[in-house]
Fold this protein.
Amino acid sequence: MDDLATAVTQKAHTLGFNLVGFVPAQPARRLDAYLRWLEVGMHGRMAYLARPDRIARRRDLNIILPGVQTIICVGLDYATPPLPPAIANDPSRGRISNYAWGPDYHEVMTPRLAELADWLIAQVEGVSTLTTRNLAPLSASVQSRVYVDTGAILERDHAESAGLGFTGKNTMLIHPRRGSFFFLGEILTTLEIGDWRLEIGSIPNLQSPISCGNCHRCLDACPTNAFPQPYVLDARRCISYLTIELKEWIPVELRPLLGNWIYGCDICQEVCPFNRFATPGGDWRLEIGDWSGESPISHPQSLNLICPPLLDLLSLTENDFEQRFAHSPIKRLKRARFLRNVCVAVGNWGSSTAPSVVDGSRPHAGQAVSALIPLLSDPHPLVRGHAAWALHQIGGPAAQTALVTALETETDETVRMELAGL
């Protein structure tokens, strides 16, 4: 590793990044596979991924940054302590992907990457241009671009080439000693930094080179069968896509499979053996707090915030939503899509076939119905339609009466079709 790469690595560590690697600015190795994935439509409604201008950028990084020489890839751990079993297995609570337990990772990583880019230029040119913007106002001789899950680059592929890990069968980037719970960020720079790869080493009793080997736990655990084959994700069936990226109606046939996930999903990572090496720690852990056994430590967030009671969420107003998730990645969903997800989770919890039902007893059903009925009059059709589905799942006289009344007064054609099909 050359002196500049060593210095950048040390500075990145002081900024809190756990992994650092460098790779020449070339097209991603799996670009052709990615294009085939787009051709068969596995990206679902994420049409922006297939835009010609974005594909062109992935083919030629010089379109993003003329004269680009190097991609600096960094990783920031976000592993969290496991939820107490009584909380994790409670279907009356909404599950949120643990990357969203703390503040929005864009707000955490982007300023640090910008500072690293600024520091790098200062070392080379002796001029500080500290900025938190995406495109740093650097000198004419050296330029850089900062990305955190926002640019038209295949960041996992570049990070793998930079030595930050290997691609697992669940398509996640996995570091053999840290698992897959880490955020990725990149600096594209016109500086040429030696082609140096982080030594990720090997772990006893695993095949060499390090890979998933014969393990297929993630493929087996996915409740929606989102992996048609190892290393291929059909986003259209992925719970994270359905609850975050999809802006429209969740397909009826997939709703029961979502369980109580209301934002994202961690199942294919939770079952991964490599994540037993993931250790909560660092400043990210300080952001979300800690807990011991069944007793949450309330500062700064409690278990009721990261795994909230579902019925508490159904009454969220626009203002409530904005205040509650002001610094969370959940805020990008907006209230309507979030409540869409919550309605599905409540319907799954209250269903007569739900795992929580014992001997046909559903003491919570009445509460769920009472909380859902007001949403049949919600201003947003997406909320009304999914609330109707949830009421149908729970059933009972009160739910049925409310659905009949809603069909008589509903004016939105899509919601009417939902009601009529129940």
